# Entry
Amino acid sequence: MTTMTRNEAAVTEDVGNLVFLEHVNVTVPDQSTAIWFYVVGLGLTRDPYMIVGPTAMWINVGDHQIHTPLKPAQVLRGHVGLVVRDLTVLKWSLTSVQKHLAGTKFAFVDKGDHVDVTCPWGNLYRCYGPGSFGSMTLGIPYIELNVPVGTAAGVRRFYESVFLTPARLEEVGGTAAVVDIGTNQQLVFRESEVVPNYDGHHIAVYVANFSQPYAFLEERGLITEQLTNHQCRFTQIVDPDTGEPLFELEHELRSTRHPLYRRALVNRDPSVPQPGMAPPPAR
# Structure
């Protein structure tokens, strides 16, 4: 058994400048279908306070969100990890919406320790029960993206250099750059022979110290939306040493002064019986 030195043990307590992954944004062409999938099928909660009209939904997942604006469908190049309240209740809910989602790409497969769920437009959500990722009982513990072969090391250097966040390379299931966000979330960039074209989906992340990554990105002409309302945007992940483009993923980069930072979110319990409906299976 390898024993860590005191300094090595202290390093494991470090939290980098990326402090919170708030949401993933994938557009959808039909909100009623999205309600059947995200709210009824996955058992998640539409935010009752923000964007309540028919043009978009913000779906609460614990402290995190999935945003679904009304536009042609976007498909994440990879998958989103979700922790749900109960896998048994999830499978019951997914079965109950099959007839409403017939003719779409909707599907789910029980993998034992998790359930793979494909949305009506092809996005994959890998759903786990509470306890699978530390103390998280409902939320988004990670987002995994497929990146071109040979780019993971450069992606790791990008996040380490620009965001001063802990990152590492892993070889389980293929080479991947694993980037820590806060205390219990990760971005995973896994090398793949096949990487679909980028369609504009994005993520929103908060940083504790905004000026350093902003300066790096601004100096290299990588800012795609300038600073306003405590946030900016960039899309291109580059090798910090050479400037070589590695991967496209729009980041909605927010400071912790943003008015929505750590806003309390409402989350219902899908195991609670609703009037006129058969109760879900007992836990």
